[in-house]
Fold each of these.
Amino acid sequence: MLLLIFIILHLFSPAATTVNNITLPGCTSKCGNLTVPYPFGIGSNSGCSIGPWFDISCNTSFDPPKAFLPENLFSYTGSSNIQRLEIVGISDEHVRVKNTVAFKCYSQIGEIIDERPTGLVVVSSYFTLSELNKLIAVGCDDYSFISPVAGIEGKNFSSGCVSVCANVEDVPVGSCSGMGCCATSLPMGLTTYVAQAFTLKRHTDVWSFNKCGYTFLGEETAFTFQGASDFTDPDFVNRTEETVPVVLNWVIGTRSCNEYKNTSDYYCQQNSICVDFEGGNGGYRCSCNNGYQGNPYLPPGCNDIDECADPNNNPCDGICSNLPGSFNCSCPHGYEGDGRKDGNGCTVRNSRSPFLKLSVGMGVGFLTVLIGMGWLYFSHQRRKVIKLREKFFLKNGGLLLKQQIDSNEGGGVNQSTKIFTTDELKKATKNFSKDRILGRGGYGTVYKGILRDGSIVAIKKARVMDESQIEQFINEVVILTQINHRNVVKLLGCCLESEVPLLVYECVSNGTLFHHIHSNGGMDWLSLDNRLRIAVESAGALAYLHSAAQKPIIHRDVKSANILLDENLVTKISDFGASRLIPLNQTHVSTLVQGTLGYLDPEYFHTSLLTDKSDVYSFGVVLLELLTGKKPLCVERSQEQRNLAAHFLVSLRMNKLFEMLDRRVVREGSLEQLEAIASLVKRCLNMNGYDRPTMKEVGMELERLRRLTKQPWVNQHGNEDSSTRMSEGEHSYLSNVSLDLYTDSIELASPNNSDHIGLLYPMDE
């Protein structure tokens, strides 16, 4: 029974299956004879470290290869040369680098015949000089000072020591007490220093046995003063530089543990603790808990130490049972005691207990151990699941979402928005099966889902996200929670506890307006009246966002692909990942230019000032798309016709409006109606946003035009109407526009996002 207990404990022990990692997967851990553990990493911008200041350069031109700290972050200065810092060792708290010795050598009459100052400049605040270093001076007529580099450290201090001796017999071996050798400490937090060798009498009195004075900063325990033999040793400088390193403290960040917890810059993994660094500019390091070992910066964290695995170092006198972070000692049958070698061990039991009593006791003990181990195991698994969900919550912007919602408290946030679990959404989509995919967008994939109550929803699963995509995702959630309009896709809830975030929308099942317009021959139902109805509903929804929402909202990516149609062909505006809230006391915001090819407002492109009139311009392109049945940009069209908006304005000026319109639109619309719609489109596409109508005005005008009674078609295309005349500014703009949009172009916004690529805007010919 005891053997069975031991086997069960061993199988459940984390140390039985875990392996200590040194680096991230796929990264090299050795440079010559040096081991480079994470958070350090070999290679510049290789992704093997936590940041550029921890990138180790491995120079393979040496044999064996040598490792150096990042260039431009650290350097030794010797004479007028800048030298890279060669690493000789990396530990949990320190980096040891190769030394440089300053010296001055004199002639018999006191002239300087050779000299070299030395210093260290550490640009990064993540490294400071360790208290393990001492400033050491060697010589019989010397004194040394150390001070920070002027203009970098911002500190005003100096420290030094004096080393003198009258004759060679006075110099003791092994002691830096001030006779032939002296040493002094450094203040904590120092990142730079300049050290020079100074003399009292230019070595004229001691020149016969001491011609040079030496000064260097180095690890105190690594240097042993050899007495007078160091004065005459020609290899003293090289030997000291090879054997006495400079010790640097390294930390992560510049703030305390509490300030980094629950942020993306907190790197301490499971079974480890965060330790604040008290010196310098702050920062922290991670350390494994007692009973654990490994790299505390690499997932899944530190591994349990199996104290029972090594029979030569077994802490128990009896039976050893490994536990997470600890161990337990017990005595075998017939023995008693605590079972520990440092305790009273195990001794033969003299009791003659009845067999039944012994059996019951052992049975109860076995059952207790099993229950205890089961409780520990399931508690451990439960903690792992909770921590994993917390990790995903933070990774997917949970704190950012909470801050955004708190900042908009009382601002119309939909309190009925539901928080879904990962299991619910996996079941609804058959574990995100491919046959449930409705479409793919710039920020994720949309799946059809069937919830437990039978309702059909659309579930948007974000792609593997970086920091900028998390901001877009959270922005869409915040925007949608403040919108309640029949022509805007409704957000039903979200899930942040999965590896990538999920949004749950009402399902709009009839595709996009883009699909209906540009499918072969167009849809049978797409009459002029239905086109105007879609335009009216879309304009009404955008007008609501601009003026009726609690805080004005600019969609910023109005296009036919973001206008959905439900089973009753009712319009639904979607995709608010790029949208922006406008403060009530402002009329515009400055943003990174972002939009979709062919729809982007030229004024917004040139000024980066986003206004509600930017949506008006994009809606004008959609309205033009409805009237012509043509795509906003098409490389297959002639050079003059590739840009639909530019071609429309040119055609309008040349009195060729009706050649552009869709044949069905021409058949079903009256002359007055079509010319009025064209005039409205022209106003929406005005180069000056101030002269464009508001979305509310656009919606009202479209509603009026939809009610116009159709008149029999009369061939009046040749009559020039004042509504088709272009302003001088527009004519000047178009005359300088190259319609070849695919030769000279500027890419904006996300280059990896096929749905939200920046406008390839025309350049001057």
Amino acid sequence: MTRERLGVMDWRKILAFFLSFCLIPAFLRRGSIVSGNTEGDALSNLKSNLLDPNNVLQSWDATLVNPCTWFHVTCDSENSVTRVDLGNANLTGRLVPDLGRLEKLQYLELYSNNISGTIPSELGNLTRLVSLDLYQNQLSGNIPVSLGNLQQLRFLRLNNNSLGGTIPRVLTKVQSLQVLDFSNNFLQGTVPINGSFSLFTELSFLNNSRLKYAPTPPPAPISPTASSSGGSSTIGAIAGGVAAGAAILFAAPAILLAWWRRRKPQVHFFDVPAEEDPEVHLGQLKKFSLRELQVATDHFSNKNILGRGGFGKVYRGRLADGSLVAVKRLKEERSQGGEMQFQTEVEMISMAVHRNLLRLRGFCMTPTERLLVYPYMENGSVASRLRDRPESVPPLDWPVRKHIALGAARGLAYLHDHCDPKIIHRDVKAANILLDREMEAVVGDFGLAKLMNYKDTHVTTAVRGTIGHIAPEYLSTGKSSEKTDVFGYGVMLLEIITGQRAFDLARLANDDDVMLLDWVKGLLKEKKYEILVDADLQGMYEEDQVEQLIQVALLCTQGTPMERPRMAEVVGMLEGEGLAEKWEEWQKEEMFRADYSQAPHPIGWNIPDSTPNLQDEVLSGPR
């Protein structure tokens, strides 16, 4: 083999190396090749065909193996996509046929966007689909005949688009349909209605000017043979009379139902005369019916209570689709016109979407009830894992506790700095930090203080919180700010480290401080970590890391709000940025204060006692 031939082979190897390590990763980043996950590929292709000015799809990273980690995507226990919630997201672009590959999809919510083009016929492959909501877009073309394959479909809403053509007759064979809305389109031809379809399905075909109902079929002609016989005529008359009577008997319910529907006022969302009320969606939020939540919680049975607190009780529930939820049944005073304000505040809460915030799934509002629906957190709250865990459940180890501290800080920082208007929690404590399946910290109960007092402005006078966590300025003035949350977070850090309650009268038996903050300060001076750190850790911790977390906690619980760090700064300190400098500065100020307090004061100066007069332990208890 010649030297020239060898040179050619070397260049081919170099070119292959370049293609393998340079071009292929580039295709991966562009989403042309994902991780082999069919559903991830399908959703990535949907994203690539949509314009997203509000970055709603920012978390849809095509290089990730599992789309279940993406926002607005819900999966089952087998990591199959069951729900895509992208309603009211200001998306433009087109739907893709790849959506038909989401084999276990039950809910496809793409309403109130600016999506154009046609409805892919491949959606007929989604045989488990329960709800298809594509209303208020700019969709055109015909309604796919393949939608007749969706035999589990209950809600089909395609209203307020530019759809044309005829209504597929095969839809009358979908016996599960409860709501079908094709209003405000350009459909033509006749409405294909059979008896069960018209009786048990809420239909709406308004504002389709070229669409008409099928005329009543004419009576069958009488055959000449039958008319030639008198006996046959008599029998025919009797049979005709019986048939007419039967027709009137069976048509009466349909006539009454049609009359009732015509006389009742038109509303955007429909009541369904079926076993279950329809789902109503407001943006990313679902409005549940009270009946649905009653069934889910076994009529709010005491055996399903997960917790009690100042805002109400929380119940474990299972929805019709099998998913577990936590239903918070609020206790509150009603106010005139409060329904609209409640709904507005609920929608504001639902817009706070972050990995470390508890996602509001929906709500229920009746003249007598206010309920909030959240995903069920399998691992409970941090407080329950610290103090009320069964023997079969292992204690939280030190790395998990550090991760919880950082996750909770990130969630609170998002509420303070990335929500407009900012959301003040007002009851930060271990009982309100929940743990999901991956033991990730999820901040719960945020926004409820505002929600429960409709007349509040951004500064409130209704003190809510738990003794031991309440910042002194909030307790004395009733005015809260993000710095009151910082104080509560600092105390919560001490709960994570010590495993103890923020306020515990049992410590009096050992002549200790009832306030956890004061108790920790006393032990910290003598560096008695073996007493200070939770005994459940059995010494499996790093003393320097414990000391750093305590330093962060003490910086967060300074008496003056202005001296406390912002939650964004707390996140930085937990990640190793700036803690040493802030701690050194605080130590110098503490030494100055100590020297000043030993100096003689003029007569008449009174140093107020910062310890409040404690009567009730809990002003607003756990979730």
